[in-house]
Design goal:
Elements lengths: L2 E5 L2 E3 L5 E8 L7 E7 L5 E8 L4 E4 L7 E6 L4 E6 L8 E8 L7 E2 L3 E5 L2
Parallel strand pairs: 2-11
Antiparallel strand pairs: 1-3, 3-8, 4-5, 4-9, 5-6, 7-8, 9-10, 9-11
Length: 118
């Protein structure tokens, strides 16, 4: 059974930083695409970033480029999202997602809440 479990969310002041983690089990990191997706209350899903495990290439939404960094630790089967220069517009539930190249959003975590507020 594939499980993705996010952690690390919380309350952060504007301009602050936070790192989210996504522990993955039952799924092989290699030859996969790992992603972060976020959703504000009452709004649709917004893709944030992805990393292609076989090439380590990373891709970011314009709204987070240069502020967020996606990475993986294959030894720990964990996906990370380092978030810097946070602003209130980043307040969302953050989900990690994973899947093979042809179905990159096959599996989802339960989400972790990030609130950016003073």
């Amino acid at each position: 059974e594939v499980q993705l479990v996010e952690s690390g969310g919380g309350l952060v002041q504007p301009g602050g930083s936070l790192r989210l983690s996504c522990a993955v089990s039952g799924f092989t990191f290699s030859s996969s695409i790992m992603s972060w997706v976020r959703q504000a209350p009452g709004k649709g899903l917004e893709w944030v970033c992805s990393i292609y495990s076989h090439s380590s290439n990373t891709y970011y939404a314009d709204s987070v480029k240069s502020r967020f960094t996606i990475s993986t630790d294959s030894a720990k089967n964990t996906l990370y999202l380092q978030m810097n220069s946070l602003n209130p517009e980043d307040t969302d539930i953050y989900y990690c997602a994973a899947g093979p190249d042809d179905q990159p959003f096959d599996y989802w975590g339960q989400g972790t809440q990030l609130t950016v507020s003073s």
